[in-house]
Fold this sequence. Notes:
Structural class: mainly alpha
Number of helices: 18
Number of strands: 0
CATH topology: Growth Hormone, Chain: A
CATH superfamily: MFS general substrate transporter like domains
Radius of gyration: 22 Å
Strand content: under 5%
Amino acid sequence: MPRLNKEQGEAVALLSIGTFLEYFDLMLYIHMAVLLNELFFPKTDAHTAGLLTAFAFCSTYLLRPIGALVFGYIGDNLGRKVTVVITTTMMSFSCLTMANLPTYAQIGIAASWIVTICRIVQGMSSMGEISGAQIYLSETIKPPARYAAVALLALAVSLGTSAALGLASFVTSFGLDWRLAFWVGATIAVVGAVARTKLRETPDFADAKRRRKDSRKRKNAERENLEADSVQPEKVNQKTSLALFLMDCMWPLCFYFSYVYCGNILKHTFGLTPEEIIHQNFIVSLVQIASLLLFVFLSYKVYPLIILKVKLLISSVIIITCPFWLNNITDPFYLLFLQSAIIFFAADAAPATSIFYKHFPVFKRFTYISFTYALSRALTYVVTSFGLVYLTESFGNWGILIIMVPVCVGYTIGLRHFENLDRIDSHEKIRI
């Protein structure tokens, strides 16, 4: 197992801790939504309440593509480090606002709008966060240690999610003020932003920026055509961007189904209280952590693309049989097994993330990767959250396959594309 040097180890630690804090804040509202939506949105019938829940959830992701373009520009022009510091600072301000926000009963519809704006800000900032951190480590550490290092960021996301759920469960179980959770979130976000100022710029970006600067000086001196300069950024392969998009759609589908869709089943079918739903989702999040720990470890032993093929095979079987299990589950305990199975074998990008990212040129990498990631989340969450409201009304639990099956097919197509690229790279290295 290759060792990291001191600077690489510090970068992994700082980015992992920062990602943990960022996603703790982001997921805090999502996992307390069964409680907070009743405080910040007007009470309505079950159908309208479902739409409001979908709207509150999607507001976090709808403007993520815009955030991706903004932070992509910053990341590709000013650097990776400055981006992750800015995003953490934005998260702390929005979390602080929600900690002090009056409820719907106090200020009416204004509460609904303000909390939605805060969620949008958090969604935009989290976009620059995760992409920036993953790109930073991809450009700093060489394989095979790179695979596990980047996958640790996905683990940090899960740990942040579990910590948010754990705190939400603690606050609601003991009848404490829910605002306490957001005060904690705001505090740790500030700590994360300060800690990240110690990072250095990535070697890949710093070297590419230096070479571009030298190239421009030579061009001005020799009056050469800039387009002929080999240092200029390459064009992005649109098929590669599409492949990454298709693969990125899988995780949000699994996440929404396990935590939100099943959460609604627990509430409306089994009559669980918000506190009980939060507690069960907390258990699911622990399963998610166990899954990531396993696959991070395996990435040292097994090539990441092989791991993804196995995950895809198992998750596809679970998804196809999912409606059957939902129609026959009679106890929340058995639903917990289904939630856990979906999350454990969810075919996401980890631990092969850095393999995908190397196929994007340095000066366009941040923009394309973050935009693709953001667009996949926004589109998948909107289609899934609103679509399931109507599809399940018309087709029952079988309606979820109308969304799940195409996403599985898309993931398969994307994975095959990157396998082909990887095979081409291997052949070129052999010839060299």
